[in-house]
Specification:
Butyryl-CoA Dehydrogenase, subunit A, domain 3; globular
Amino acid sequence: MAASYMSVAAAVSGATGSYDPKAFCSKTTDVASCLRVYPTLPDDVAKSQDNEQLYTRLYDYCGVKIYEASSLAESMIATTTAADPVIIATFFPQWKGDEAITTKTHPGKCLLSCNKTIGDVDAIQTCGNTYMEDRPPMIHQNLTVLFHGGHPLPLCKSGCSERSSSEGEAILATKFKYIWTLLDLLEAVLPEYLSETATGAKHKTTTPSPAAASTAP
């Protein structure tokens, strides 16, 4: 465990001694996807200065993206025969529930898979709406199972190609693949963040400012 921590710490600190959150991509299950996604992260996430900042900001950003995907999935489901009349009334109040259901099409398997899987990862994030401070170890446990438990990839991640899906399904699948990569990165950060909170120490590796460096003995 100590050797593992030191190897990650060395990667994160880099040659200059500054904190490099992008280095955590090397610990993900899909390094190439992580490196593609990383430049799209908001500055406050990409420029985090320690593991606590990176975990907290990445967690919040994941939540935003999951909400966006969930809203899109629900609006798409609402136009199909799988829609609950309550959902139809929410998105299309001008329709009468029964009439809307009988005039809409059957949902594709890709849409159904994405809708379910997005709900699953949202449940991982919220942990049954437990207190925020209690969530990190639970999220870590669930993400470890998700990424390292030997389960097949969900259809929304592996099988919703543009050729076999509708335009809307392809957009939804693209959003989910982005979320999947964010969660992969979050899973890579969590062991280091949890090791710090367990010991009460924050291993911040930052480059001193020029002013501080000039006053150093």
